[in-house]
Amino acid sequence: MYTDRVIDHFRHPHNMGRLAEYSAIGKVGNIVCGDVMWLYIKVEKDAQGRETIADISWETFGCTAAIATSSMVSALAKGKTLDEAIAITNRDVAQELGGLPPVKMHCSALAADALNEAIYAYLSAAGREIPPALVRRHERIQKEMAAIEKRYEAFLKKDEAQAAEGPKEDACA
Amino acid sequence: MLKTIYLDNSATTPVAPEVLEAMLPYFRTDYGNASSLHALGQTARRAIERAREEIAATLGASPGEIVFTSGATEADNLAIKGLAWTEKQKRHVITSRVEHPAVLRTCEWLESQGYDVTFLDVDAAGRVDPEELAAALRDDTFLVTIMAGNNEIGTLQPIERIGALCRERGVTFHTDAVQAYGKVPIPVHAVDLLSASAHKLHGPKGVGFLYVRDGTKLLPLVHGGGHEGGRRSGTENTPGIVGFAKAAALAFGELASTPKRMRGFRDRLIDAITQIPSTRLNGHRTESLPHIANFSFQAIEGESLVMRLDEHGIATSTGSACSSPDLEPSHVLLAIGVPLSMAHGSLRVSTGRQTTSEEIDALLEVLPTVVEELRAISPFKVGDARCTPTE
Asked: What is the band of A166 on the pLDDT scale with cuts at 50, 70, 90?
């Protein structure tokens, strides 16, 4: 079901882990639906004085496709100027992986969203003007995450209640 | 390519060599249609009726009580719909939240047709409470359908007790025994309808049966030439039926040994895997099928785990959302109260007759490393029950 490129990135992920020093984090996804992606970026000026993604890394809880798309988005964004990185879309991520199964397309959206959110977080922390397209995507991403929280409210409450009680002693375990 | 270590035997099993051997003549030389009058046809007929007797004997049933089908999904459908369609007055069915989709979806379909269905909750190990079932029985209940052993977590249901309750109230009792048949003794005396499948016990795919207690009336799903006593039309799958009988004979012949060995593997898996930090057993420690063990690992996702193990040549499965077409985690894990943060990180290990001690060793050697690797790239850190990401 997965392409060789997906399997290759899953087996040998690029830029995984957490940067020792980073400028911003993009956090997307929710544990309830099984995918969470955190993307770390380190922004520096290049020789021409343009802001670039000098380093990038990620931590992902998710399936094969989620891990492969995390790896791919980091590979695509590394060394790019912020403007170039903003232009990276989920289609780019999926295409570079040779396609994804239809049910897994949301994983490529998640990866592009994480990059979007990291750049948004960087610009807003720096008090800089944020391109309207980036703002629109940020608002869409936040809205979607809120919708998931709402949809799984009952489950999340249950998880939290169990967390408060501490690990339950199972009759069986 | 390294040899696959196949630990997904509750999905399907390899056909036993003896089974294949028994089937081959019915493809090559004795290929007649069992309804034909000529000698070839009558050879096929005799083979099918011999197989029916052998299968009936494994249940202490009479041959006329066995209806061959295309598999257990069809058998479940025949039991549930076939019974519902004979009912003129009664509209109520009772099942549980942990049934196989073949039963759940069929009951939901009945609901859509105006029937009333009660989906019983289960306890933390996945067991139906017979008291709760007794309380749910109504005057218009015509069917209770509760599986014998769960296909995801292995938990056994109190079939004998449930059967007795149904008998008292004159309600027909169906059990999906797909995973239990040939693995644990089944109290058939307490059951009216029972589904089983050949490919779960080293028989071929595409053949199953429904045991129908004498006197239980069913309407057929499949109309046609009136095969199987009019209960299931369609030319009999002679090689499949012969293969099923052979597979059943093998399984019941070693009922005292193979399940015991499987139980030993399961105990070892549980002892070793629950030593991995932030890991839980899903299901019951002892009240279970011998061949299925299910675990959850905090902070990792099941599909990734299955794919990583596959790289090491080990075939397993998961109930994670990412592995299902609807992106929802396993209904069984949710029903037993596994938190969502753990439900995504489940692993099912299921053994078969061919499983060796060395294969269990190989899994136990690889698994902790794979879990550690996946936890290293996860934003979640293990330890707290909510599994909150930490910066």
From this structure: very low
| C-alpha dist (Å) from residue B272 to A127, A168, B282, B384 | 53, 20, 14, 21
User: Which pair of tokens denotes residue B83?
Assistant: 């019974």
Q: Cβ A17–B125 below 8 Å, yes or no?
A: no
CA–CA dist B350, B154 (Å, integer): 9
Residue B24 has pLDDT above 80, yes or no: yes
The CATH number of whichever domain residue B274 belongs to comes to: 3.90.1150.10
Give me the domain span that covers residue B234: 17-253
In this prediction, residue B383 carries a pLDDT of: 63
Are residues B379 and A10, on separate chains, in Cβ contact within 8 Å? no
**Does B300 touch chain A if contact means CB atoms closer than 8 Å?**
yes
Q: Tell me the three state secondary structure of residue A119.
A: helix
Residue A153 tokens, joined: 């409210």
Position A31 scores a pLDDT of 78
Closest in A155, A165, A166 to B340, CB measured: A155
Tell me, yes or no, whether B73 and B135 share the same domain: yes
Minimal C-alpha gap between B174 and chain A (Å): 27
Write out pLDDT tens, residues A64-98. Answer: 999 999 999 999 999 999 999 999 999 999 999 99
Query: In terms of CA atoms, which chain B residue is nearest residue A25?
Result: B391
Predicted confidence band at B326 (pLDDT cuts at 50, 70, 90)? low
Strands (E), chain B: 5-6, 66-69, 92-96, 116-120, 141-145, 172-176, 193-197, 208-212, 279-282, 292-297, 314-315, 346-350
Reported confidence tier of residue B327, pLDDT bands at 50, 70, 90? low
Whether B194 and B107 map to the same domain: the answer is: yes
0.95 exceeded by pTM: no
| Facing residue for B377 by CB, picked from A59, A170, A171 | A59
H or E segment at B84? helix B72-84
CB B45 within 8 A of CB B231: no
Tell me the domains of chain A and their CATH numbers: 4-164 (3.90.1010.10)
Q: ipTM of the assembly? A: 0.86
